Amino acid sequence: MAKRKTTKTKAKKQVQCSKCATPAVWIKTVRGKWMLCEIEGIVTEGGETICTPDGRILRNAEPGNYGNVPHWQNCKYGNNYRKGGEYGDD
Ligand SMILES: [Zn+2]
Question: Separation of 82 CA from ligand 1 center, angstroms?
Fold first, then answer.
């Protein structure tokens, strides 16, 4: 089977958080769920939870990984996100 490079940027849908109106993006995770993340990606210093551009959730990430922090971590209504299950990892 021919290998196909799938490193192209996946479509990101820029929206506003429905709770706090902060601009954010939906990133599709490898599990096929959408996670609302901060627009600006970060390089981890170690210990963060991020969603990588290819949709993997890194918890307690090693230093030097690039990704976007799930918005609920910064959202003042973050508790509602967790209850609502929008943090789409299980
Ligand atoms: Zn918010």
Answer: 12
- Determine contact, residues 36/25, Cβ cutoff 8 Å: yes
Taking the model in full, what pTM does it have? 0.71
Neighbours of ion ligand 1 (CB under 5 A): 17, 19-20, 75
Residue 79 belongs to domain spanning:
14-84
What tens digit of pLDDT does each residue of 20-42 get? 999 999 999 999 999 999 999 99
Domain count, the chain: 1
Q: Is residue 6 part of a domain?
A: no
Look up residue 12 and give its two tokens. 């990101």
The answer to whether residue 40 sits within a structural domain is: yes
Residue 10 has pLDDT above 80, yes or no: no
Q: What is the DSSP letter of 71?
A: G
